[in-house]
Amino acid sequence: MDAIVEVVALILGFLGWVMVGVAIPNRYWKVSTVDGNVITTSTLYENLWMSCATDSTGVSNCRDFPSLLALSGYIQASRALMIASVVLGTFGLVATLVGMQCSKAGGDNYVLKGRIAGIGGVFFILQGMCTMVSVSWYAFNITQDFFNPLYPGTKYELGEGLYIGWCSGTLAICGGICLLFACKFDTEEKAPYPYNPARGTVYSGAASRRDAASTYSRNAYV
Length: 222
What we know:
GO molecular function: structural molecule activity
Subcellular location: Cell junction, Tight junction; Cell membrane
CATH topology of the largest domain: Butyryl-CoA Dehydrogenase, subunit A, domain 3
Transmembrane segments: 7-24, 80-100, 121-143, 163-183
Oligomer: single chain
Main location: other
Shape: elongated
Structural class: alpha+beta
Keywords: Cell junction, Cell membrane, Membrane, Tight junction, Transmembrane, Transmembrane helix
Number of strands: 7
């Protein structure tokens, strides 16, 4: 396993995991649009957990969503996917740290360590996919309402929280792919060829056995 690729993959996965933690509490997943408004007295913005408003004086007021079951289905699904992303990223970091060559946690069995690091790469890819699905689904609903001329409610635009989520998913997937390409899943190591000190040559399997048999047969007549 290439140690440099391991370190790069670990850094990418860690950054993706940190950015998931930044994106989840970020309040600006969607922000009310100013398109078509002559006078804007307040700005509305929401995330997965609360809805906020900022007036012209800069005072902000936030309220948590009162009921989980009363929320839209895509918000509930986005919450679950983002939480799953954090959990998968944690497993990926632990598996990668154990499976790295420079780590002593897995002993000296580099084949086993490579497999553990490969599992960490799979966890990173799953983390990135959960994050990408969550933020993309949320963004799809925002754009669907924005371009719907018959939508009666407040129209929103994409907030910075979604862009952080997209960056997080991209980093996690890249880190997982790097780990998978760096891992060697060899099941066994090749045994060295026997060395014949009398001739100074190396023989493999059947050839060495034939040479030994002929030597013993000649010695029997001495």
